[in-house]
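Observation: inputs received (chain + heme C).
Thought: call the complex predictor directly.
Action: predict_structure
Action Input:
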Amino acid sequence: MIKNFLIGFGLLCVVAVGLLGTRGEKHAAPPIEFFSDMKRQSKVKYQKPSDFFADGRASRPPVDGTIPMGYDIPGHPFQNSGAPNDILSPLGEYTAGTDYYNTGKMGENWGTGMPEQIPVTPALLKRGQEVFTINCAVCHGATGQGNGITSKYGLLSIANYHQDKYRQMADGQIFNTMTHGYNTMMAYGDKVTVKDRWAIIAYIRALQRSQNASINDVPEEQRAALEAQK
Ligand code: HEC
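Observation:
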């Protein structure tokens, strides 16, 4: 019994030293790969030829009409004047300043209300809906109840905008949450322009109003029609 064990152990030592003993030594021959070490991959490198595409190039040119982020759409009626954070720019820009418009803060405190550069118009709300749907609805849900698709896949405690806490939260604090993120929510300051962040806030406020409205919020001339629907 002991003899078998000793023979087995001896053989194991020989194999182990045979396989591992030469590690660290220099060899001219390429190393033996038990698994492919990802040195060769079936991918093409930029600026290299490839016979996969008809033009023989591996790099693909940008799609026609592609606009680099931060640039204006040529020929758009609102051309950017070049001033930082020009409100007329169709795309808006990223945080560039310490004023309320750029930070959501008035001095040391969160400010509230739309900054003077942002008139609340139907177009602003429409834009807010669009960017909210693209960036926020996956988690916060289309109506802001915190029941977006990610909540079905285990993301916990997504803020429900219809709680009092968020109804009363200053616009500036929501702006800051979007810019820098909050706990498990990542930052959107590098993805959503300043102007679009304010548009989203206007839209969140509209969502909150929509879930907490009374008959007095309906213009008088339309109330009769609503009553008739009941
Ligand atoms: C990947 C999921 C996800 C996305 C996308 C997302 N959020 Fe959130 N958000 C969260 C979670 C989770 C919380 C709760 C964080 C906490 O309270 O710890 C939260 C919290 C918040 C809060 C409350 C923060 C506070 O101070 O309590 C606001 C406001 C908010 N999100 C706005 C937005 C806006 C606006 C967008 C789109 C630009 C957005 N979120 C996109 C997951 C997300």
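Thought: report the result.
Final Answer: The helical segments are 2-20, 100-103, 122-135, 137-140, 164-168, 171-180, 194-210, 220-229. The domain at 100-209 is CATH 1.10.760.10 (Cytochrome Bc1 Complex; Chain D, domain 2).
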